[in-house]
Amino acid sequence: MYVWPCAVVLAQYLWFHRGSLPGKAVLEIGAGVSLPGIMAAKCGAEVTLSDSSELPHCLEICRQSCQMNDLPQVHVVGITWGHVSQDLLALPPQDIILASDVFFEPEDFEDVLTTVYLLMQKNPKVQLWSTYQVRSADWSLEALLYKWDMKCVHIPLESFGADKEDIAESALPGRHTVEMLVISFAKDSL
Q: Which reaction(s) are listed as its catalytic activity (predicted)?
């Protein structure tokens, strides 16, 4: 488990918007060590952390992150992208879905968006706040967003103070280009 540069950028976005978070229902998908979800909880959001139900060690890491940050009120549930489960169906409507670097493998893109779409059915105004690391110019969400009747707004990193070199510093080799997106239902579907 590792805090990836995308998680740091998403946590910075949450901190920038901390005044709007108290009382919001926030779900982090693919949470791992859960930095964005922990930040949201520390800012007053009602947070649920999730990772794959097929990876119990990841769910345990989520629980440990809550424990280390004195956040016993944060729920942890197993949600596997693209799978309809009791845990997914039992979730209350969310205001914000957090996703840090979940658009990693192109074969998972549609499963992620299918899961988000199901959550959007409960609250059509929910937004997916997502950061991803640019890995290939050939990978695009555009066709899938269109298919699932969603739209995407690119958020410039400088608009929330995340454009500094040290914000997502990493010991990993190479340059890390991180992008911030807000995904929601397309306007004409509301």
A: L-arginyl-[protein] + 2 S-adenosyl-L-methionine = N(omega),N(omega)-dimethyl-L-arginyl-[protein] + 2 S-adenosyl-L-homocysteine + 2 H(+)
Sign of CA dihedral 173, 179, 184, 186: negative
Taken in order 98, 155, 134, 187, is the CA torsion positive or negative?
A: positive
- If you compute the radius of gyration of the chain from its CA atoms, what whole number of angstroms results? 15
CA dist., res. 49 & res. 76, Å (int): 5
| Paired tokens of 128 | 């997916």
Can you read off the two tokens belonging to residue 169? Answer: 């510093």
Full set of structural domains in the chain with CATH: 5-93+102-134+155-178 (3.40.50.150)
| Res 176: pLDDT | 65
The Cα 88–Cα 79 span in angstroms is 6
Tens of pLDDT along 30-70? 999 999 999 999 999 999 999 999 999 999 999 999 999 99
Asked whether the beta carbons of 38 and 69 are under 8 A apart, the reply is: yes
Q: Which helix (H) or strand (E) holds 100?
A: strand 96-100
Alpha-carbon dihedral 156, 162, 165, 170, rounded to 10 degrees? -110
